[in-house]
Design goal:
By secondary structure, the protein is mainly α. Among the domains are: 60 residues, no CATH class; 65 residues, Serine Threonine Protein Phosphatase 5, Tetratricopeptide repeat; 238 residues, Tetratricopeptide repeat domain (Serine Threonine Protein Phosphatase 5, Tetratricopeptide repeat), CATH 1.25.40; 100 residues, Serine Threonine Protein Phosphatase 5, Tetratricopeptide repeat. Helices cover 67% and strands 1% of the residues. Strands 1-2 form a two-stranded antiparallel ribbon. The longest helix is centred in the N-terminal third of the chain and has 39 residues. This is Pre-mRNA-splicing factor prp1. Keywords: Coiled coil, mRNA processing, mRNA splicing, Nucleus, Repeat. InterPro entries: HAT (IPR003107), PRP1_N (IPR010491), Syf1-like (IPR045075), TPR-like_helical_dom_sf (IPR011990).
């Protein structure tokens, strides 16, 4: 054992103070008989700590007031001790104090004050922190924020542009070693190859015999030649493709979609076209055929009972040009898949030779032995036979095996040449398959008119849910020459019976059946179907009128006018006083009916809607255009009785008399109209009439009187200014009229234009600019005013100012087609017109003016087919724009045929355009009053530049 004493028996170290390290001091308890011993003094503690530090080889500690080695005094140590003092163990003055309710209340008050001050500073603190955070994010943006604008721009990428993005390719370095090995191979290239490559990039700049330069090129410093002609041609081709894509997306016609939906693929015939496509052996690489052969062999070995695998393998060999291998493969497939119809049919197809088909017949016989219930195999076996006798024999065997097959019975009936034999076969077929509507209808068609109803009655009892049988019965009555009411009664019975059997079709399906009847010539049946089924499933609360008008639009588009006529007739019977239905029906008769039908319909319309001035005027116009002036007058007289003091009827009567040379009668009607129906429109027509008659004093007197009654009528101010300007040549009075009009009607764009053009005509360009500036202040978003400002500067020869105004205009009105047209045709270089046109079409959707601009660009480049296409888009986009028709006709005068020109003129006359910048100037000129649409069209063409 060790001679060392245990811990408790050892003497205490020198200067040991119990609990000194834990901050213990002396204290007194009640058990002490006398005062407790005092703790060590400060000097003793410092001396003990100093000895311990010396023994450990450390600097003297600074606790309890001792000086540190760094030279700090006791005052600094006291400050540090005060900072780190425990508030729950206070010393000095607060050590002996008591903590009462007042102190608690004070603490709560101080806490509430601190909390309130914190809330007051919270808003400013959060604002300051948010500002600092935004500043930091602005100076140190994330990658996501840096590409945010580019991500938003991806929304405008079309499907075609996505599809045209090239593949990334191999980025893994998989084939890097092979590529490096290929680069290390060097071959000696003959000098002739180098010379040929050099000469292939050269471009001859000589002049050909016809006087046209063959192109242009520039020789570079390294000896190569840059062909700018090819570069320009490629750029033009790219721009042309983009313009076509933009037109297809924007839509030039009503049949194309708005924004990226146009397609040239027929959705119904797409799969059919794929099945008809043939792949030749030379079109597939050998490597692909080998890989496909390995894959298909794996499929066959894995599942030899899988018929499609054998078919695919055989077709692969056929595509590869190995017909014998293909037949061998499919023969093995027939062994492994004897119950697969598709495999046998493929084997028959591959073994056909077009002569006697001996092998194919043997295969078909084996196929039928394994699949004697297969209708497809029986029909294929029948088609392999060459004579009718053999085909009938095969079909009889097929019917013995599969007597319930409608397809086999139809094939057998088609082979019969004698109608009596076909009738017997169909009678037997209907006995075996009484639920086949096709067989019943075929039998009814073969029967005599007397027996056909009997057959249809049997069919109706056998298949009470078939609507085809009722339609066939109605058509039979129509063919027999029975009146319309018999056909209608039969369809009524049919609809009742089908409703009882819960076999009624939808309204759209009945309309489709009516169209089929119209296509096959059964007009009465078509009308009966519409009458009995159009209101089916619609309540009175539904918007039936709008529904039926929409139903009539689709047959019209498909050329089924009798169906649409029946729909309108039914809708008119339900809504007798609905003016919109009468107008739609009249439009149908006007475009696709006869004059007598249109007159009869309009007569019924004015009787049903006697207070519709539009119907009265249509009837009068039709009578007038047909040459019946007296009938037109009588129609207007009846309209006056039903609609007294109606301005439209008054003006129609005035136009009728004026166009027929009855000036006094027209003037009298206008005077009476001003007295009884004195609207601003009547006064305007009165002034226009006097101007057409060259009675300037009367026109000026009328316009002065009218302005006293209607000072806000902008057209009256324009007419007054035009009378002074063009007819009396009094420019101060014209200026006064225009200025007064602009103050009374500040939103009238034509008034501002007339005022500015008057100043320009007088040579006061500064005043013209001032007028247009005031106009743009009143109407800052009007593209016409901005265009006029640009034209003013351009006509003055100040192109820099015109470009500056154009830049401002496109910022204010980026969707103005007139502005883009002005910029493209007059402010852009010829080489930049196509890019600007593409940009304009993307921003302005379906603008006819832009379409005409693109057509003119192609016209200038002698791309006549493209120009004609864009002119067609323009007139289809808005047929009311006369300028589009004029540009198209001007183009056809130079590059079109007589038939096409006549067609365009007839369509323009039918459309009766009313708008257009040049068209309105010509059409509203008093000197051109009474001219036809064709004459105005030719006059506009002469003024186009």
């Amino acid at each position: 054992m060790s001679g060392r004493k245990d811990f408790l028996s050892q003497p205490a170290p020198e200067n040991y103070v119990a609990g000194l390290g834990r901050g213990a001091t002396g204290f007194t308890t009640r058990s002490d008989l006398g005062p407790a011993r005092e703790g060590p003094s400060e000097e003793q503690i410092k001396e003990a700590l100093a000895k311990r530090a010396a023994a450990l080889g450390q600097a003297p500690p600074t606790a309890y007031g001792a000086k540190a080695a760094t030279g700090k005094d006791d005052q600094d140590d006291d400050d540090d001790d005060g900072r780190y003092a425990d508030p729950d163990n206070e010393e000095g003055l607060f050590a002996t104090g008591t903590y009462d309710r007042d102190d608690e209340e004070a603490d709560r008050i101080y806490a509430a004050v601190d909390e309130k001050m914190d809330r007051r500073r919270k808003i400013r603190r959060e604002a300051r922190e948010a500002k600092e955070r935004e500043e930091y994010e602005r100076n140190n943006p994330k990658i996501q924020q840096q590409f945010a604008d580019l991500k938003r721009a991806l929304g405008t990428v079309s499907d075609d542009e996505w599809a045209s993005i090239p593949d990334v390719g191999d980025l893994t370095g998989k084939n890097r070693r092979q590529k490096q090995n290929l680069r290390q191979r060097f071959y000696a290239v003959p000098d002739s190859v180098i010379a040929g490559a050099r000469d292939s990039t050269q471009f001859d700049t000589s002049i050909s015999a016809d006087g046209n330069s063959t192109g242009g090129s520039v020789e570079n410093s390294d000896g190569t030649v840059t062909n700018f002609a090819d570069i320009g041609a490629a750029q033009n081709k790219v721009l042309q493709v983009r313009l076509d894509q933009a037109a297809a997306q924007g839509g030039g016609s009503g049949t194309e979609s708005v924004a990226g939906t146009a397609t040239n693929i027929d959705p119904k015939g797409y799969l059919t076209s794929l099945t008809k496509s043939e792949i030749k052996a030379g079109e597939i690489p050998v490597g692909d055929i080998k890989r496909a052969r390995v894959l298909l062999e794996s499929v066959i070995k894995t599942n030899p009972k899988h018929g499609p695998g054998w078919i695919a393998s055989a077709r692969l060999e056929e595509v590869a040009g190995k017909s014998v291998a293909a037949r061998n493969v499919i023969a093995r497939g027939c062994e492994f898949c004897p119950k697969s119809e598709d495999v046998w049919l493929e084997a028959i197809r591959l073994n056909k030779n077009g002569v006697d088909n001996h092998n194919a017949k043997i295969i078909a016989a084996n196929a039928i032995k394994n699949n004697d219930r297969s209708v497809r195999l029986w029909i294929e076996a029948m088609t392999l036979e060459n004579d009718q006798r053999s085909k009938k024999r095969v079909l009889r065997q097929a019917l013995d095996a599969v007597p319930q097959s409608v397809a086999l019975w139809k094939e057998a009936v088609n082979l019969e040449e004698d109608p009596a034999d076909a009738k017997l076969m169909l009678a037997k077929a209907t006995e075996l398959i009484p639920l086949s509507v096709e067989l019943w209808l075929a039998l009814a068609r073969l029967e005599t008119p007397e027996n056909a109803p009997v057959v249809l009655n049997k069919a109706r009892k056998a298949v009470p849910t078939s609507h085809e049988i009722w339609i066939a019965a109605a058509r039979l009555q129509e063919q027999l020459g029975n009146p319309n009411n018999m056909v209608g009664k039969l369809m009524e019975r049919g609809v009742t019976a089908l409703a009882k059997e819960s076999a009624m079709l939808k309204r759209e399906e009945w309309i489709g059946e009516a169209e089929k009847c119209e296509e096959e010539g059964a007009v009465l049946t078509c009308g009966a179907i519409i009458r009995e089924t159009l209101g089916w499933g619609l309540d009175e609360d539904d918007d039936r009128a709008a529904t039926w008008m929409n139903d009539a639009k689709d047959p019209i588009m498909r050329g089924r006018y009798e169906t649409a006529r029946a729909i309108y007739a039914y809708a008119i019977r339900v809504f007798v006083t609905k003016r919109e239905i009468w107008l739609a029906a009249a439009d149908l008769e006007r475009n696709h009916g006869t004059k007598e039908q249109l007159w009869n319909l309009l007569e019924k319309a004015v009787e049903a809607c006697p207070h519709s001035e539009q119907l009265w005027m249509q009837l009068a116009k039709e009578k007038w255009q047909s040459g019946s002036i007296d009938d037109a007058r009588r129609v207007l007289g009846r309209a006056f009785v039903q609609n007294p003091n109606n301005e439209d009827i008054w003006l129609a009567a005035v136009k009728l008399e004026a166009d027929n040379g009855q000036v006094d009668a027209a003037r009298g009607l206008l005077a009476e109209a001003r007295a009884k129906a004195g609207t601003d429109r009547v006064w305007i027509k009165s002034v226009a009439f006097e101007r057409q008659q060259r009675d300037t004093d009367a026109a000026l007197d009328l316009v002065t009187q009218a302005l006293q009654l209607y000072p806000k009528a902008a057209k009256l101010w324009m007419m007054k200014g035009q009378i002074y300007q063009h007819e009396l040549h009094k420019f101060p009075q014209a200026r006064e009229a225009y200025m007064t009009g602009t103050r009374a009607c500040p939103t009238s764009v034509p008034l501002w234009l007339l005022a500015a053009r008057l100043e320009e005509q007088a040579g006061a360009l500064v005043k013209a600019r001032s007028v247009l500036d005031r106009a743009r202040l009143a109407l800052p978003k009007d593209g016409t005013l901005w265009t006029e400002s640009v034209r003013l500067e351009r006509r003055a020869g100040n192109l820099p100012a015109a470009n500056n105004i154009m830049a401002q205009a496109l910022q204010e009105c980026p969707l103005s087609g007139m502005l883009w047209t002005e910029k493209i045709m007059h402010l852009e270089a010829r080489t930049q017109r196509k890019p600007r046109s593409l940009e304009a079409i993307r921003k302005v959707d379906n603008d006819p003016g832009l379409f005409v601009t693109v057509a003119r660009i192609f016209w200038a480049e002698r791309r006549l087919d493209k120009a004609a296409t864009w002119f067609e888009k323009a007139v289809l986009a808005d047929a009311d724009q006369g300028d589009s028709w004029a540009w198209y006709f001007k183009f056809l005068l130079q590059h079109g045929e007589d038939d096409k020109r006549e067609d365009v003129v007839s369509k323009c006359v039918l459309s009766e355009p009313k708008h257009g910048e040049v068209w309105q100037e010509v059409a509203k000129d008093p000197a051109n009053a009474g001219k036809s649409t064709e004459e105005i069209l030719k006059m506009v063409v002469a003024r186009l530049e």
